[in-house]
Design goal:
Length: about 300
């Protein structure tokens, strides 16, 4: 029997729902996410069961509902509230960043144009991490296609018709051949299967890390996995955990848009981008999001 949970929250005055919706609008085929003018429907695996999360934005508030194809289990209401607040970026101290840097000669102009910008988060750290692996060293369009094929390969469908982004157990059960048939390189397939096994077996406690955010330990353990590099870690910390201080100097769109913001002709190197972003700690990743927003090229 389906379970329905609901939650309503008040939004800050300068909240920008369009930033959140744009992040989930990446796949035009709407296999697992369906975005409308002021709403999102997202399929996800919830405690091993197909679930559909719906977010509806109205003036000053957001209404969230979660429909689970089965029993909810204990603690689901509190977990839903926490997930929605993270997904909407409401745990991010953007006001402090904007206040401190609003007079900066380049960043101040970004803030003036994009006041209230928050980083949209994935529903879970595992989703963010696997999306980062899929997107390594390929275009955004190619990464979206790989993500779609991964969702279809695991085959979890909610009663609403939406496919569900898989959990670690579902990906762990895939074969190398099925991932290769979905378009993943052998290296990425191996990395995905390794991550899924480590998470499913409790060796990478991603959900527990949400409570304590031991950034150094997260970075160390993820970097020990073959196929995981600094960009993947920084992206997963940002989109999965909401950590605002990852240096995304290795991101091509960040460097390209930084070149535009600085008004220079020569391309910005990774070292130059790292040095420039360093001055904005502890908000380096939030600043990267402002740079992404310059061209709406956020991965």
């Amino acid at each position: 029997m389906p379970t329905l949970l609901s939650y309503t929250l008040t939004l800050p005055p300068a909240f920008r729902p369009g930033d959140i919706l744009a992040f989930h609008r990446r796949d035009a085929q709407e296999v697992a996410e369906a975005v409308r003018e002021a709403s999102l429907r997202k399929g996800l695996v919830w405690n091993g069961l197909p679930g559909c999360l719906e977010l509806h934005f109205q003036s000053g508030r957001a209404d969230a509902t979660l429909t689970i194809d089965g029993a909810a289990g204990a603690g689901c209401a509190a977990r839903l509230e926490a997930i929605v607040q993270r997904m909407l970026g409401l745990t991010q101290d953007i006001e402090a960043f904007e206040h401190q840097h609003r007079h900066h000669p380049q960043v101040g102009a970004l803030i003036a144009r994009q006041t209230g910008l928050r980083v949209a988060l994935a529903a879970t750290p595992f989703e963010a991490l696997t999306w980062a692996v899929a997107g390594q060293q390929i275009s955004l369009g190619a990464a979206v296609s790989l993500r779609r094929k991964l969702i279809l390969a695991t085959g979890v469908r909610h009663s609403s018709g939406l496919m569900c982004y898989p959990d670690a157990e579902r990906i762990k059960a895939l074969s190398m051949d099925s991932l290769r048939a979905a378009g993943f390189s052998a290296a990425k397939a191996n990395t995905l299967l390794t991550l899924a096994r480590l998470v499913a077996d409790g060796e990478l406690p991603l959900d527990a890390w949400l409570q304590t955010l031991p950034v150094d330990a997260i970075r160390e353990q993820l970097l020990s996995v073959r196929g995981i590099g600094p960009w993947t870690v920084a992206y997963a910390l940002l989109r999965g955990f909401g950590w605002m201080d990852g240096s995304l100097h290795g991101d091509a769109a960040v460097r390209r848009n930084l070149q535009t913001v600085l008004g220079v002709e020569e391309k910005i190197s990774e070292n130059d981008a790292r040095a420039w972003l360093a001055a904005f700690s502890p908000w380096r990743a939030l600043l990267a999001a402002h740079l992404w927003a310059q061209s709406a090229a956020a991965p």
